[in-house]
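Handout, section B. The chain below has 153 residues.
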Amino acid sequence: MKIGLFLTLTLVFGAFSVVGVNAQSADVMKTINQFVDGFNKGDVKSAVAACAEQTSIIDEFPPHEWHGPNACLNWANDYDADAKKNAITDSVVNLGKPKHLDINGENAFVVIPSNYIYKKKGKLIKQIGSAFTFALHKESSGWKITGWSWATN
């Protein structure tokens, strides 16, 4: 009887734990998707809203690093300037299935294989199998991106 009760409780609480982790994973990915969807649609306001007040960014175009208040907005402005300078248009990021999604309390770390497809001077360019890496923190309003980096494959 005691073993049966123990197994039942283990299964019940284990199921709640898995559901909790899956719900947290979905919430973390919702924030990342908001950022990427905003980028893909050219909706800077939506993308920036996914970022924490203090964010750190590393990306492949100069100045390569942004941090502090308004880092996401500053990155977006610098991205636009770089895209204009290099005649980059029709930019889209496609996220794959996360290779690594780790949630520890109020912090999360996510690595996602991603593709960046765009036109440069009218020529189609595909960066396939790049890595988009995120750090997030759970705030009272939900998960926010505290850092991200892009690494071209």
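Note. Residues 2-41 form the longest helix (40 residues). Compare this with the example in section A.
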